[in-house]
Amino acid sequence: MTIPTSRPASQWELIWRRFRKHTVAMVCLFILITIYAASMLAPWVAPYPRDAISLDNAYTTPFNRAADGSYHFFGTDHLGRDLFTRLIYAARVSLTTALTVVTAATIIGVTIGLVAGYFGGWVDNLVTRFIEFISTFPTFTLLLIASSIVIQSSEVIPIPGFISYLIGAVMAISEREANQVVLIISIFIILGWTGVARFVRGMVLSIREQQYVESARALGASHLYNMLTHVLPNALPPIIISYTLGLSGTLVAESGLSFLGFGIQDPTPSWGNMLSFANSYMFSYPWMPLVPALPILVCSLAINYIGDGLRDALDPRVQTEIRRATRDAQLAAIRERSKPQS
To answer: Nearest-CA neighbor of 252 among 133, 101, 26?
Structure first.
């Protein structure tokens, strides 16, 4: 007779259980997923075409009918374009931009920081000096300068066709608009990976001195195996927290850049350039700036609260809970085996 034994919960299962107890973080995760899912379904969710212009319907107030009898949830802008429709498409552009930038910057930063911290020596010195050199420049100022050069340049900057096609397909924008978005994303990535690399390097310098890493090295494990099996997994929880917080910062930075006119340009909608256009009508039509401003605020707060939930779930004290749960499961299995069989 086979006696069933309880399987010890894995580390990630325990982390997920702990995260689910954070009610605010779970609500924020649901809100964020709902907004992004609606934006990806924009062609079916949006009531009007993205760039449909009707000057007769301009400045329609929210939850009212326009001059031609059409209904607009959030009103219309100065060109009579439906703000609810543009808000959904803008969410697709802004959130995808933030996700792409932070994902790419994290991959680059983790790779460089992992190599620099693990090998040390001249590799570490070279990477550290390069990061320090880039960090001496104010990031947002560099973003403004680089973006203005790219936007105002009459030269065509070559971009691989498949990248523009992929971005255009995901964001539901034309190839010309996709080229512009790719350039903005590239600028963010080039200036954004250094913080991740420095952060990961510091953790790896500590982890590589642990006994289990030294033991694996003594047993003949390759450097690549050691980095991917022993070093990176132990550095992953803080990297995940850094990733979520980076999403919030990038979303606000992109919105600020577009608000100043140096980011994503009209007719491609983003929350930043929608806010920029609405800013001119702040006193005449005070509801217009609120339409793009509220999603920026809601998504930024949601991402930060998700980060708080992850920080609680990935707290070092959770390791004690993991060990205790594993030990209890093992003891329970031993007790089950020791019971007399009927």
So the answer is: 101
